[in-house]
Each structure stands twice: as C-alpha cells, then as structure tokens.
Specification:
This protein has helices at residues 3-10, 16-41, 47-54, 60-82, 103-119, 123-131, 137-154. By secondary structure, it is mostly helical. The protein has a domain at 100-160. The N and C termini lie far apart (66 Å).
Amino acid sequence: MSSTATETTARPLTDPAAAERELSWLAHLALGAAFGVIITKTQVISWFRIQEMFRFQSFHMYGVIGSAVVVGAISLLIIRRTRLRTLHGTIVRIPPKDLGRGFRVAVGGTLFGLGWGLTGACPGPIFALVGNGLTVMLVVLASALVGTWVYGHVRHLLPH
C-alpha cells in the first residue's frame, strides 16, 4: 500500500465547520422557499392586493401586517421573559432602540413606502416575485441592491 492511499483514507472527508455551514445554508434556503410559498399563496405579493391596501379598499393586507406585528410582539415578549438561547447556547439579547426624535424613521418610512407603492413590492417579496416568473422584478431587485450599496457608502454622512 502506498503512502498516498494511507493519507487519503486517514483524512476526514469533510471539515465539521464546513458541513455545519452547508447545513445552515440549506436550512436558510428551505426557510426562504417556505416563506416564498406562504406569501405567494396568501397573495401578499399581489400588486393588486397592495394597491387595494393603499386605496383602503380591502382589509386583507392590513390583516396580514397586523397579524405579523402581533406575532412579532408576542415572540419578543417570550424571548425576553424566557431568556431564550440560540442553538450554540448563547442567550438571545435584543438591545433597546434609540428612536431619537423620529426624523430618520419618518424619512426612511417615507422612502420605503414610496418604493413599495411604485414597485408593488417590499424587499422580501421581490425574491418571491422573481421566483414566480415576474422577470421584470429583476430590475427592482437590481435597484434595491444598488440602493443598499449606495447607503453603505453614505451611511457615515447620515444622522444615526
């Protein structure tokens, strides 16, 4: 038996950290796909549903958003009260937010709302819309990525 064959069989097939990263990536992909199916089936990605909401013609989107706010609030309460731990055993800590005078929240919310109203999609559903075959949303995705890149470069100039 040659020394090369011995070395090959003695080494582990995969690095445990790399295997964990791969599983993490697959778990995130599965969760993202499930999220896409859910928002597609509930019509959250429908441009017509979004327009109905902005025109106050339907409760559908307000119900979905309101439900998400309630579930999020209850989840945060449970996380804080039970001192929930991550899979690695560290306690989940949610730092308090300083809202300041609210100017940055108002400006950011206005920009977000304008983008949502003009394109009919907020960041999460953009991927679901592309996945559903609306290739024109690739322009929206590219614009969102460019906007994120620009923000990263001018962030230090903005009031935070």
